TrEMBL record:
Modified residues (N6-(pyridoxal phosphate)lysine): K224
Organism whose genome encodes this protein: Wallemia mellicola
CDD domains: TA_like
Keywords, alphabetical: Lyase, Pyridoxal phosphate
Full protein name: Aromatic amino acid beta-eliminating lyase/threonine aldolase
Domain of life, source organism: Eukaryota
Length: 361
């Protein structure tokens, strides 16, 4: 079985199996998101304004959106409850009317994990493309799949939606620029699912503004990696965000007094962003330890994700996960996402689990 097929199977497991993590405990779990509402974050959030964001009267939200627009180099920003909502509003705003299509990576969140939202909300066909290099879509991959003429038999491509990072893999910025230049020359719009853009910023040293520049719209998650309890932000031009605000209301995403959660996100942005580098270091250390113990690592570890296959130890994933749980570590099948609150002790314990199987065989 090829590595691509193994990753496809892992994605299928994510769709079919419930999350086994029910609550935060004192055990060193490796798949938990950062613990929301740290003491400092909670104190900061209590100072938030209490205005009505639906009427654009909440100072904390307005200031945060303005800060985000400046950070990303876009004209305006819109706070959304979730990354899925931000992506779906962004795509719907970019699309005028059917028939139209959206090109994306076959592993993309908007294609696999957003409940068919592009078809439902935007009446658009998704054209999933598998990267020929096994890492990221190239301009040539996209050119082969894009429909840029007016042939009535096809849904004309209107948007190219990229994801950075994709499955923990960092998209080369120069390739993104190539795609963007070609797209704009052919009248296509560019959307970025930047749920893990903070990881890309830390890994590459490129500014968030540089990473967003090739795109017409960008969604950025505030909880993944950064550690806010809730929310994502959608950025784009003034006219784009004005239209997106209508769709946010239509989708049921207008929140009245959201200053409290926005302030928590603001705290996370100010205090947690530099800490993300630790999650990358932990992921690299974990992958090396697992590989040395005989676990197959399925893809390069370029940020905070480790994709692994324990069957190389001669045991099933269930057996591996059961022994890990006995050591106080709860795992999802095939993927481990590290964050800055994980401990060195948790890494050592999981590597020890892998080594215990190695000694048996």
């Amino acid at each position: 079985m090829s590595v691509c097929q193994q990753l496809e199977n892992i994605a299928r497991d994510f769709r079919c199996k419930p999350n086994p993590l029910k609550k935060h405990t004192n055990t060193p779990k490796l798949t938990l998101s950062p613990l929301p509402f740290t003491d400092g974050m909670l104190s900061y959030a209590f100072k938030a304004s209490r205005g009505d964001d639906v009427y654009e009267e909440d100072d904390s939200t307005n200031e945060f959106q303005a800060k985000f627009a400046e950070l990303t180099g876009k004209q305006d920003a819109l706070f959304c409850i979730s990354g899925t909502m931000a992506n779906q509003i962004g795509l719907r705003t970019n699309l005028q009317q059917p028939p139209h299509s959206v090109i994306c990576d076959s592993r993309a969140h908007i294609y696999r994990f957003e409940a068919g939202g592009v078809a439902y909300h935007s009446q658009a066909q998704v054209i999933p493309v598998t990267p020929s290099n096994g890492h990221h879509l190239t301009l040539e991959d996209i050119q082969k799949a894009a429909v840029i003429d007016e042939n009535i038999h096809y849904a004309t491509t209107r948007v190219i939606a990229l994801e950075n990072a994709t499955g923990g893999l960092i998209y080369p910025q120069e390739e993104i620029k190539r795609i963007s230049e070609w797209a704009h020359a052919n009248g296509l719009l560019m959307h970025l699912d930047g749920a893990r853009l903070w990881n890309v910023h830390i890994a590459t040293g490129l500014s968030v503004k540089e990473l967003c520049e090739p795109f017409d719209s960008v969604s950025v998650c505030l909880s993944k990696g950064l550690g806010a309890p809730i929310g994502s932000v959608l950025v784009g031009s003034k006219s784009f965000i004005k239209k997106a605000t209508w769709f946010r209301k239509l989708f049921g995403g207008g929140v009245r007094q959201c200053g409290f959660v926005v302030a928590a996100a603001d705290y996370a942005l100010q205090h947690n962003l530099p800490l993300i580098e630790r999650s990358h270091q932990l992921a690299k250390r974990l992958s090396i330890g697992l590989e040395n113990a005989g676990v197959k690592i399925l893809s390069p570890v370029e940020s905070s994700m480790v994709f692994y296959d324990p069957t190389s130890l001669g045991v099933s994933s269930q057996e591996f996960n059961t022994r890990a749980k006995a050591a106080g570590i709860t795992l999802r099948p095939g993927r481990i996402v590290l964050h800055f609150q994980n401990t060195d002790d948790a890494i050592d314990k999981l590597v020890a689990v892998a080594e215990s199987f190695s000694k048996q065989h």
